[in-house]
Amino acid sequence: MKIPTLTILAFETSCDDTGVAVVKGDTVLSNLVANQDVHTRYGGVVPELASRAHMSNITATVDLAIKDAQISLADIDAIAYTIGPGLTGSLLVGTSFAKSWAWANDLPTVPVHHMRAHILAHFLAPSPSPDFPFLCLTVSGGHTQIVHVHSASKMDVIGTTVDDAAGEAFDKVAKLIGLPYPGGPLVDKYAQLGDPESFVFKGSKVDGLNMSFSGLKTQVLRFLQARLKSDPTFVESNLHDFCASVQATIVGMLMLKLEQAVAETGITQVAIAGGVSANSGLRKALGQREDWQVFIPPLSYCTDNAAMVGIVGVLDAAEGMFGTLRDTPHPRMPKLTPCGSPR
Ligand code: KG4
Ligand code: ZN
User: Fold this and answer.
1) In the CATH hierarchy, which top-level class contains the domain 134-296?
2) Which ligand is in closest contact with the Cα of 16?
3) Ligand 2 geometric centre to CA of 218 (Å)
4) Architecture of domain 7-123+302-342 in this structure
5) pLDDT digits (tens, 9 = 90+) for 92-108
6) Is the pLDDT of residue 41 over 90?
7) CA atoms within 13 Å, Cβ hemisphere of 42
8) For ligand 1, which residues put their CB under 6 angstroms from it?
9) CB 23 within 8 A of CB 76
10) Burial state string for 126-138 with b = 16 or more CB within 10 A and e = fewer than 16
11) How many angstroms does the Cα of residue 282 sit away from the middle of ligand 1?
């Protein structure tokens, strides 16, 4: 796909990372993420604290993003920002800041769907990008979807979790063994040192391309309760094998449905996106599919970042799809569509 060379200042504040980036065409000129450590001690994101941290971080982050990109304000064509889905308070900070910034500098806005941004991150240079149509497994802390991507603006969700997201499953299991939030990356780290066949957990069976992860947490809880009764040091002495076994179960569930989606659609270009696409087990399993053309984003574009919002800004602005200063956050957005209207 040919990417227009517009310059976009982009904001991402859907959850607990304050992201600001400058993207010119498919080139990322700067991409900053201010992580919020404040949630670690609570074992999950505390929405009110996330909004407050976004407010304290955002001004310094935007200043630094513009400085790092070595551009002047006159170079910016439009302001893109995540309008949803996500935490209302967090989205409100980014939305208000981006719209104010646009208004003060007389620039148009491009409201962006967060999950569409995860998918279109595949069009950021320098990695090779897929051709349309392709399948994308979007796996994050809030979503687990198999998406049939017809074009940059037409995408159908053909499979989804019916309960917890895959990232949530990683985080909940991690919490059960006392790991801090977010536990997914830590489970991955320990899993790489363990044997995935040490313990057997069953993946839930769901019809069609849909998935379910909430049963895994209950299964793991019962398993741990039984093991800890006879061996109070079970977690410490089996940490690596335990994490490897849980990770293999989650990756197995995702791969099963992805294989089914490829069989049903006949599409063999397969991309992954979202925080869980950083997972080494998932990357390895995909790497073994020599019959597919697999697209795996660089780690910095897997977890929440504003560069992915920037590329959507470039594509939508080039199509004349803009927002207005009256746009407000949408915490839930079932359809993966452009959020602006023709101008
Ligand atoms: O896309 P993301 O940064 O934020 C959301 O939109 O949710 O995804 C965050 C999720 C968390 O659940 C985190 O534990 C998970 O992605 N995650 C991982 C890994 N890195 C991040 N899960 C498993 N393995 C990883 N390496
Ligand atoms: Zn995300």
Assistant:
1) alpha beta
2) 1
3) 25
4) 2-Layer Sandwich (3.30)
5) 999 999 999 999 999 99
6) no
7) 11
8) 15, 140-142, 167, 170-171, 182, 184-185, 188, 274-276, 278-279, 303-304
9) no
10) eeebbeebbbbbb
11) 12
